[in-house]
Every structure is written in C-alpha cells, then in structure tokens.
Amino acid sequence: MLAGAHPAAGCDGLRMAPGGLVSEVVDGDTVLLDSGLAVRLIGTQAPKLALSREDFADWPLAHEARAALAELALGRNVQLGYGGEEKDRYGRALAHLFVEDGDTPIWAQSRMIEAGLARVYSFPDNRRCLDQLFAGEAQARAEKLGIWADPYYSVRAADRPDDLLGRVGDYELVEGRVVLADRSGSRVYLNFGRYWKEDFTAVIEAPALRLFERDGFDPLVLEGALVRIRGWVDERDGPRIEVTHPEQIEVVARP
C-alpha cells in the first residue's frame, strides 16, 4: 500500500484535459483508459515488467509498482495534464495523471515517486513539475523506501568506471565530483577522472547546451562540484551519459 501521499499540489502551468476511466494498469507508469487511450505517466520511470518481451526480465519491484498504481487509479476517473510533447512514437499520451478524489485530485506521479516505486525520468521536450518530483524522490531515497532499498537502483559511484561499464544500456544515477568541465567545439564534457579515455564522462551536445543557456545554467561552472547525473549509460572512451537537458544534472555540493 502506498503511504505518505498527498493530493496534487504544485504542478501548475499544464494544459488540462478530460481523461476518462482507467480500465487497465499496464505497469507502474502506464495506464489504459476506457477510451482506448494509453497514458504514459510523464516524468517518472517505474520498475519495468517484461510484458512478453523476449530477453527481458522483470526489474525488481515491478509487480509492486503496478499493484500500487492499480490501487490508486484502476476503475477511477482521471484528468490529464500536458506540459510539453503530448504523444510519443507509440501513440501514447504523455501526461501527468490526476486521479479524481473528491475536491482534491491526487497527482499519480508524485504519489508513486514519494512511495519509492518510481524515479524521476525526464525529457528535453517535457520538463514541467520536475522540481516537485525531485523533492519527493530525494525524500524517498533518504528513507530507503521501495526501490531505494534495493541495490539494483543504487546511485552509482562515478569514480568506479569498471562498475559502470557493467551497466551499459541501463538507466542509472551516477554521483561524483567533476574533475574537469571543458568545452570542445560544440560540446561540453564533464570529466569525473583524469583519464578521459577510461573514466566516466557526461557529454552535453549543442542542442542541449541551448537549453542550458536558456535556463541560465553554465555547465562549465560545475568543475569541482559534486553532482548526480541521471541517464542511459553507453560506452565511448569509457562509460558515459549523454545529457540532453539540464534536469539530468543535480548539483549536490558546489565547489
């Protein structure tokens, strides 16, 4: 059962639209409405279920996450809140889900995050309401709720590149101190070790740098800072994460 949740608050500036009745909960971040519309709960990533995909295993706590979202939303009327791109390539609605509950609808994303049954997962074209979700995630992580008590979801150490190479293809949170922040051409590199061909690196390409500039966030000032990077780990001259928008970087401590 989900605990400690509260009605929707603080997620403003959305385009609100009628949703309908939740007829099925696919997993911890996807529901189907009675209209046939699939809704992906934008801003969150719950533990994934295999759902008949070959060579894919359920992530830890995936069934618990689906059960929790079903407890909250199945058979209930919902409203949809759009804050950016509204459809994905699969035709799913990308929306914040508000479950009708008397006069105070419940923000499903916030509840799942606060229960430790999802983590923040953002996109460059869908960035609203993330501050509130980050705050809920930080609290759940501090209290070791849900996924945060399972080593599968541990925050990884940036100074252990060999461990990160074992996580290539996974979505991870990686924490460490930026040894060097440097611009080369149209890219910015945040290096977490002195051997850039082996150590962990965060790479910010030109389109992302335009978002950083728009937000008044100069990534070059992060040199010496303790930061947490979230994203998909790949391998190119050591393990790395491509940063596509500012919210992928959390500053833990300034230099």
From TrEMBL:
Q: Where is the TNase-like domain?
A: 16-150
Q: Which Pfam families match?
A: SNase
- Which GO MF terms are attached to this record? endonuclease activity; hydrolase activity
SUPFAM superfamilies named among the record's database cross-references: Staphylococcal nuclease (SSF50199)
Q: Which UniProt keywords apply?
A: Endonuclease, Hydrolase, Nuclease
InterPro entries recorded:
SNase_OB-fold_sf (IPR035437), Staphylococal_nuclease_OB-fold (IPR016071)
> Which PANTHER family does UniProt cross-reference here?
EBNA2 BINDING PROTEIN P100, SERINE_THREONINE-PROTEIN KINASE 31
Protein name as it appears in the record: Nuclease (SNase)
